[in-house]
Amino acid sequence: MEVKVVSGDITGLSINAIIVNLFEGVKxxxxxxxxxxxxxxxxxxxxxxxGEIKGKLNELTLIHSMGKITPERVVIAGLGKEExxxxxxxxxxxxxxxxxxxxxxxxxxxxxxxxxxxxxxNYLTTENDIAxxxxxxxxxxxxxxxxxxxxxxxxxxxxxxxxGADPDALDIHGRRMTAAGVLxxxxxxxxxxxxxxxPAVAAYRLNSSTPYFVVFNDQWxxxxxxxxxxxxxxxxxxxxxxxxxxxxxxxxSSPAIASSEGLGGYTVTWDEYNSTENDWDVFGRRxxxxxxxxxxxxxxxxxxxxxxxxxxxAVAGGSPTALVAWNATCFTTSVDIGGRLLGYQLxxxxxxx
Length: 353
Hints:
Elements: E1 2-5, E2 17-23, H1 31-39, H2 43-49, E3 60-64, E4 73-80, H3 87-103, E5 108-111, E6 138-147, E7 152-160, E8 171-178, E9 183-190, E10 196-203, E11 212-218, E12 226-232, E13 238-245, E14 251-259, E15 266-274, E16 279-287, E17 297-298, E18 308-317, E19 322-330, E20 335-342, E21 347-352
Parallel strand pairs: 1-5, 2-4, 2-5
Antiparallel strand pairs: 3-4, 6-7, 7-8, 8-9, 10-11, 11-12, 12-13, 14-15, 15-16, 16-17, 18-19, 19-20, 20-21
């Protein structure tokens, strides 16, 4: 049996069968299932209204296309409740649908990316904006990470419940959302006194207990600004506080974070102002899944000669290295983009202009 996983117009593939999906409780399918339903003249919607297709987990419904689309057969795979969709569910239902089609003699099968929310040949979005925080309070500076194991997102942002009346009332909030756009309960990640701002978030799929790490600027302990973070549990709630960069009388800001599949855990970067040398530099630190940290290290120092500095870092995880990029600012000449690959024993400087 030949199995193909494709993106594009699945109704035009010259194959024996295609696999689409349906969440439990959906009355009119969207995405790829909606595209197939339209090509079949609304047959899937009709079967839903008649109760033959319910979308329950592991439910399989076989439809013959009768020449309306190129594939001869269509299987609608039930994904169950949207909020309970996980990578394990997707793997299981895809495997079961393929086994079912093999038993009925289908030699070539194509399946959509279940739960991804795309269909046809174009990228589709939800019809309406999603109100992640509908409280009407003053919110800003969002960031988002995707959790592959749970097929969901964690959105984090700065919340000001006083709408600017109290300049110190900046906190970090977060909320998970499924890949289908279902909003889950909000969490307050940090509401310490003083200002918490500029959050960044990453997800590490191999850590089931605390799969998210949120870092942010914080003035709770140091008026000059520190970088702290919280490891968050599978519900997005704060679990372990991690003090990443908290040197007294040092301005540490602009945190960025990435999970590292090859190294495990996270790489956190930030910029730091040295008042003695009147200079900025970019620093980094490895943080493990439980919050244990390696030593902080300078990343941009070699590319920041006298009169130059590094600010506003960005980082992406890789295997086995991570890449950090930043503004390499020479105060009297130019602004370059510096970069460095990070690994266990690898640190390769590069620069681009």
